[in-house]
Amino acid sequence: MNYLWLFVFAVATAFESDESNDDIQINCEDHSVHIKWKVEKMMTANPARLFLGSCFPSVFSNMTQDGAYAEFHYPLSACGFRRTSTWKSLVYENKITYRPLPKPYPPAFTYPVRCVYDSPKGWTPAFQSLSTGEIQGYGQLAFQMAILNHDFSGPAESTVFPLGSFVPIWAAVNQQGHQPLVLFLEECVASATPEMNADTLIHPLITNKGCLVDGKKSFSRFLPRFQSSSIVLHLQAFRFAVGQEVYIHCKLIAWDPDDLNETKKACNYNKATGEWELLDDPFQNSLCQCCESTCGGREKRDADFAPQGLVLKSVLGPLTFTEGSL
Questions:
Q1: Which of 76, 110, 251, 297 is most deeply packed, by most CB within 10 A?
Q2: Cβ–Cβ contacts within 10 Å for residue 263, how many?
Q3: Residue 307 to residue 106: CA distance in whole angstroms
Q4: Which residues, in sequence order, are CB contacts of 49 under 8 Å at separation 6+?
Q5: Beta-carbon neighbour count of residue 2 at 10 Å?
Q6: pLDDT in tens, 178-231
C-alpha cells in the first residue's frame, strides 16, 4: 500500500515505545508508526470498527492459522496523533480502539500508542505564527489529508488512476477540545514535483480562496460534508503530467463556522446553470460570485491576523494518471 501524506516535522534521532503487549506490536519508525494487532474473534466481523485514532487498518488479515491481524502503518502526522515537546523529547500519543458502535458510544477496547523521539541537536520548542507552518498542538489541533478508496471506507490502496476516473481527496482537522471549526481547502495546485519554486509548472485546482476552478472544465466537485471539520474533494483525473508522478499541493484552513465570507468558503461550479454555488449554504451563494474576479473580503479578519484562522500547507502524493483503463 502506498502512503500518501507528506508533512514537515522535526527529525527524530532515536525512537521507542514503552508500551508492550503480547497481542499488540508497536514499532515507532523514523517518521511513522507500524502496529500489528492480533484481534480477538469478536472484533473480526467488522474490521472497519478498528481504529488507530481516526484511521482504519492499512491491512486486515482474517485467514491466518494464528487468527486475525489488523495492521496500521501511517505517518505520525496522520490519524490524529497528539504531539507534545520538551527540550529533550518529542512525544507522539494516540490509541488503538475497537468501536462496535459509532460515537458517542465509548469504545469496547482501548490501548495506548506512544512513540518517544530524541529532539534533534540544537532544536528547541517553537511557537510559530498561526498563519503558516506547523500548528500541531495548538489547541490540540491536528490536520490530516489522504486519498480514499472508491466507497470512502478507508485509504486508497493504489495511487494510479486512469484519466477521467475520480480521486477522492479527504482532508480533516481533529479539533479535540478546540472550539468548533470548519475546514476549507483554500488553494490547491498539481505539480510534477514534491517541492515548488517560481519556475515550477503547475495545474490549478482550487484558487481565489476556495473556488474549485478545475470544475469548470471537468466534473470535479466538493462533496456534501459529513461534518464541518472535514471536506472531500472529488477530483477527476486530468491530463497534466500523464504517466509522471503528480503531487497535490494544498493550503488547508480551519475557521470559525459562523464567519463565512469571500475568503473563507468552498465553491463548486454548476455547469448546468453556469453559476458558482457555496458548498455549505446555498442561501449564501453570493459569496462565490467573486470566483470570476478576485475574492478579497475583510482583510482584517484574515487568517494571517485572526486567531480563529489556523493554516497548514501540505503535499499529497505521488499519484499517477494514466491513459486508458486500469
A1: 76
A2: 23
A3: 32
A4: 43, 98, 99, 100
A5: 13
A6: 567 889 999 999 999 888 888 889 999 999 999 999 999 999 999 988 778 889
